[in-house]
Amino acid sequence: MLNGMLFGANTGIAWRDFPKRYGPWQTVYWRYRRWTRTGLGDRILVALQRKLDATGQIV
Q: Shortest CA distance to 50 belongs to which of 38, 31, 42, 10?
């Protein structure tokens, strides 16, 4: 699911044109929408950035 969201963000592809390997486009869309509204997506990215920075993996 997360890969599908990232794929969409990087490519700008229309939701309905998502490759089948990411599952139903509706599921990816609704989860992305919910994560965006609740701020969960931002919290995940911040946590990942902190972890990577603490281990010296962000240059």
A: 42
